[in-house]
Amino acid sequence: MNLNINLKKSVFLMLTLALGLGTLISCDDETGNANVLIGSNIDAAFTVTPVQGASNTYLLVAQTKNVISSRWNTGDGEYPGKMNEIITLPDAGTYTITHTAVGAGGATGTASSQLVVATTDLAKGNLVKGGSFKTAADQANWKKVIYEATGDWVYSDKGATVSGGHAGIYQAIDVVKDKEYTIDMVVSGGASTDMWFEVYAGEKDPATVSGDYSDGGKVMGLNTWDGCGKNPVSGKLSAIGCTKNVKLDAVSNVVKFSTTGKIYLMIRCGGGIAPSGITIKSVELRGK
Length: 288
Known about the structure:
Jelly Rolls; 18 strands; globular
């Protein structure tokens, strides 16, 4: 009797294994090599709709079938966003909006659409001068603070690049008391180690400050200890940064000042900066 039971168990086990193997094989395509967990033909289509009551503000809505996440590019570099993404384009011009849809297994699809912004929103005009760094005239609007002999900022038509050690750049900007502003810039660079990249908007002139500039508290930035900057970076700082706004105790690029007059936008970086440096361009301070 025991022999009969054991034989039945063996037959049952072999049948189970055969069925399982058949199921696994049936998951492959005709070639037997396809990975069914990787999506294909990812549709990145999206619509653009003006937001009523908000100047130069648009809602981007991506189709969601087989899409896990979205990346957007409005011309200043790609950044991770939402499938329903709101963008603001204060300056008149023609923009190419690009959406990269990410599907299963990292498969991607890309779609682009041109958007014409007819008029500039004067209330949100950029108060930063020479934020592109493209010309000598642009670059002349900035001053340097070199904290370490090995550190420096180098200007080119591609932007301003910091490398070698602790150094900062700044400029004076006129603001209005209690008005909200936003700060932003496009940042790119390789992977860094033990690095900080910090943005300040203070009332003290950096030229008169002894030691590290910290007036007004950190507004935004990158920091490898906080979890960003260890890998290559590319995109708007407001989207890829992880440094908290000290006054708001949250990651935010919004600032407000207690007086009307000059403030100083200071950008400084130090530590184990990526060998090729960290480059910034399209620096902005705008009314919210």
